[in-house]
């Protein structure tokens, strides 16, 4: 499907949602970090870095008052999670005196990324001492229903979403200076004096996002569940849209290429904040390593800096994201500028493709695909390279470089042949990977996207693998996205819809306001970090149900 | 001694220190809190409150870099306290990578009241997570050499001098937004990630004080110890001089009348920030209770508010402080304004004096004198009333109200007779108090100040009581001050000097940079609050050695 078809897809879904240009966010010079040219940066990269900074968006603010207090009740029958039960109204909260040892959970009704503030009053004989409060910010009920500590995960506890704050003089307005991502806030009074208790009034969150209005919201949905799936997708995306596309506003707050690809895709059919995509592409392009490779992530603050991780599949998605941006926005100037960067990433990958067109896992380069340790990623990576080649070839054509384009098309065909020979097991009717002929969701997804075997066979493999007891399953919505996309590509729209209902729909059943970084319906509460309290529950790579809904499940490219 | 003599006393001590007018601090309107008239406040009080706010001083800033890091070594031989040992230079500190679990104690070389800031750098693979730090602010080595927790005191732990701070993006400049009082800062790294450690550079304290220059510093001292006693007194006072006279900058940060009296007295011979005294008198006058009584303390922030404590001896010190201010500054306009307030306090006290001139402890009114629970305070309170009467009488004379003046002089004589009969035990040659004829330091001090018995007898009682095993001793430098003053009043200058050397000198021996809220040489480490980590170690009422030094031990009044 080309972009014209995609736009037709939009129009069919949302007849009255006009394709208005995205509202330009006002530029606030104060939000653009002062830059100086990093040591050893070449002139071209420095120009791109300055362009990226000039595209720093202003943030939209939404002041959301608390909706009241809640209590969390563990679900009955051993079902995972908690039920949110309304407790006090905001008026009742404001009249509730909290003494040392007391606690309360405030609810803001939806997920917000921003700054908590409240008026801190007091009642009693005298506010003769500071108030010391422990604040815990919850994206999901678990965060505030269960204690954050002890934390036994293996990534830094400095990311845990809590703060101890001290307020010296009451009454006062208090604003938590750090940005947090939350729907719930548990406030525990560590100490006041015996002479007074605190009163929480006017609690609100100053929510920030660069998303702006959602100009392409469909007028109607097949059902309330689909409407909710779309709404939660969009909330997930818009919460991750800050001065870059963040992977999740709670923890890393970092721009990752794998997430960016999916965010940009969904942004194209919703907020249409194309400048933010452009900014992110410039950031990756400007901050390559000395060999010219783009990193898997970049740090934005305090000043842009290259991330230390390199992932080959993510690097290839640079070109894919550029492709989508260029053809959606007809911004051929950016194509001219950044194509060489995309090509450089492809060249790195092609070093791993032998003369027979078979991809070999590099020993010295990392790749992601999914978190599953046991997963053999050879077949999936083969698919990623083919995914990249098709986009690269189209860009080369647009740049009037037919030799390149043809060379890559030819290579893609060779790789397809190689894949059919090496990865397709005609007996089992599965794509297999590695010496042990491992069967996995990832291999079916990525080679299913490559058009190597007839659609019926590919769809069949995708459907069967999800029930195959010995198959290596997925851990992330990131891989689920490619499963859905592969189904769509292989005449499996109905099945793709069902997969979204089964997977993302189950997060809705568990009360999600935004979609999660990590979810396994069979193991809810699992964490890739050894501690679910450090998981991100508003995670960019989880937002693509909205993309499929709004494109009416038309296949990508 | 009248004020002229006092001024001669200054001149004799510091021949070159010119009696220049205090340098007027610039008024910063932004520092004056916005006021609105409190509900029910009468017009007169409102005018005084506005005058008080208009006198809010600007603060002087002093940027003090750290002097390096230190380690604390427990004193040998079971001696109390710690020895401060230099460890790293600031340059070495800046090169020391601190990982999760590491800690360091920074030294700023003296006591500062202000705002800690530092540049937080990082070293390692990548600063890919926030840094979470636990900061503990120490006025004395114990604060940082021993853990703050568990804290078992009975006043609020919200006053404990520690903070948990989170810094999201490194490198950055970080400023602790709350004011702290400290010489030492222990920085414990709760967590970074495994990929980096922090670097502490440019640590400094932005010290604040309204004191300004000490224009009356003596040119020479009898010995280095006396010079140090004076310097530490002045540091104690200047650290407590903020937008009011605070009792101590660490904990309450509150304006107390008992402290104010001693602060104003010492300020007169040093910083001469007379407007600050005036501001504080206006605050007490404006914020009386409905009966017209001044409270023992007022709260300054967020807006001025009456304290909940009333102490009769403190209330009487309002007039004493007014007296000193008026005659030092020849500000008779303020006398006219505030004399009625002082008189009102005296009237309350005189309700407790019977026709024979004997003071009876009220059942419904509190009084302080000292913290000692067992202390019978009747005799001492009798002395406080007489102390007040002499100043009130002089002010009445200056206001041309001779009847009042004479009436109070007569009453004072009657009270002297009553005291001789009821409190003086000629057999024991002690002032005694209460039905059990209790012997205490407080009774000897306050009635020793009243000139009831010949100086030789009073001095003798003062000297003997300090060695009397059964006598009720003092717990606070506040009472020690009156012991010194009483010795000075009774021809005991040599003995007064020795007492200062024995008491305040012992704090110096223990390494004090400022004098403490509470100190008992026989029980170092004692706390009136059940936990020494909540004690204040820079406390206004401890600053008067500097007063006696600079007045050459001339008796007050």
Describe the structure in your own words.
Two copies of one chain form a homodimer. With 557 residues, the first copy, chain A, is α+β, with helices and mostly antiparallel strands. Chain A has two domains: 354 residues, Alpha/alpha barrel (Glycosyltransferase), CATH 1.50.10.10; 146 residues, Sandwich (Jelly Rolls). Helices cover 37% and strands 18% of the residues of chain A. The first copy, chain A, has 16 helices and 15 strands. In chain A, the strands form three sheets. In chain A, strands 1, 2, 3, 4, 5, 6, 7, 8 and 9 form a nine-stranded antiparallel beta sheet that branches. A three-stranded antiparallel beta sheet of chain A has the order 10-11-12. The first copy, chain A, has a three-stranded antiparallel beta sheet with strand order 13-14-15. In chain A, a hairpin with a 5-residue loop joins strand 11 and strand 12. In chain A, helix 8 runs parallel beside helix 10, helix 10 runs parallel beside helix 12 and helix 13 packs antiparallel against helix 14. The N terminus of chain A is likely disordered. Chains A and B meet through strand 6 of A and strand 6 of B. Chains A, B: This is Alpha-L-rhamnosidase. Chains A, B: InterPro entries: 6-hairpin_glycosidase_sf, 6hp_glycosidase-like_sf, Bac_rhamnosid6H, Glyco_hydro_78_N.
């Amino acid at each position: 499907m080309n972009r014209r078809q995609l736009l037709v897809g939009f129009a069919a879904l949302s007849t009255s949602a006009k394709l208005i240009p995205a509202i330009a966010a006002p530029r606030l010079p104060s939000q653009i970090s002062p830059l100086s040219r990093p040591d050893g940066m070449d002139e071209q990269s420095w120009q791109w870095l300055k362009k990226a900074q000039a595209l720093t968006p202003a943030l939209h603010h939404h002041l959301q008052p608390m909706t009241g207090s809640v209590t969390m009740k563990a679900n009955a029958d051993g079902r995972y999670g908690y039920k949110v039960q309304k407790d006090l109204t905001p008026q009742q909260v404001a009249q509730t005196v909290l003494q040392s040892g007391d606690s309360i959970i405030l609810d803001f009704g939806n997920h917000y990324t921003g700054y908590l503030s409240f008026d801190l009053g007091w009642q009693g004989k005298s506010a003769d001492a500071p108030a010391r409060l422990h604040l815990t910010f919850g994206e999901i009920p678990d965060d505030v229903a269960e204690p954050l500590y002890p934390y036994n995960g293996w990534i830094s506890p400095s990311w845990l979403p809590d703060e101890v704050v001290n307020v010296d003089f009451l009454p006062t307005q208090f604003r938590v200076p750090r940005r947090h991502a939350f729907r719930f806030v548990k406030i525990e009074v560590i100490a006041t004096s015996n002479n007074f208790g605190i009163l929480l009034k006017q609690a609100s969150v100053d929510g920030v996002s660069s998303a702006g209005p959602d100009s392409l919201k469909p007028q109607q949905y097949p059902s309330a569940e689909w409407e909710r799936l779309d709404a939660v997708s969009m909330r997930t995306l818009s919460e991750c849209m800050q001065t870059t596309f963040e992977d999740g506003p709670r923890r890393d707050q970092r721009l990752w290429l794998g997430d960016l690809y999916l965010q940009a895709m969904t942004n194209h059919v919703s907020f249409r904040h194309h400048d933010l995509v452009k900014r992110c592409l410039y950031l990756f392009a400007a901050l390559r390593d000395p060999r010219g490779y783009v990193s898997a992530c970049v740090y934005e603050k305090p000043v842009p800096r290259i991330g230390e991780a390199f992932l080959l599949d993510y690097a290839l998605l640079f070109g894919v994201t550029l492709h989508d941006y260029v053809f959606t926005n007809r911004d051929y100037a950016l194509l001219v500028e950044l194509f060489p960067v995309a090509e450089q990433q492809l060249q790195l990958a092609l070093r791993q493709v032998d003369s027979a067109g078979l991809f070999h896992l590099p020993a010295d380069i990392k790749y992601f695909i999914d978190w599953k340790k046991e997963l053999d990623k050879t077949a999936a990576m083969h698919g990623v390279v083919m995914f990249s080649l098709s986009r690269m070839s189209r860009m080369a054509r647009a740049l009037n470089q037919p030799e390149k384009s043809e060379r890559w098309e030819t290579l893609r065909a060779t790789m397809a042949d190689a894949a059919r020979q090496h990865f397709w097991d005609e007996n089992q009717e599965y794509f297999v990977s590695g010496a042990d002929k491992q069967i996995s969701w990832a291999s079916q997804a990525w080679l299913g996207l490559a058009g190597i075997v007839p659609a019926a066979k590919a769809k069949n493999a995708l459907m069967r693998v999800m029930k195959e007891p010995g198959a290596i399953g997925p851990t992330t919505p990131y891989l689920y996205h490619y499963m859905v996309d592969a189904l769509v590509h292989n005449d499996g729209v109905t099945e793709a819809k069902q997969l979204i209902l089964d997977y993302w729909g189950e997060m809705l059943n568990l009360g999600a306001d935004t979609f999660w970084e990590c979810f396994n319906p069979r193991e809810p509460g699992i964490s890739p970090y050894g501690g679910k309290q450090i998981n991100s529950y508003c995670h960019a790579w989880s937002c693509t149900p909205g993309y499929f809904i709004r494109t009416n499940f038309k296949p990508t490219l």
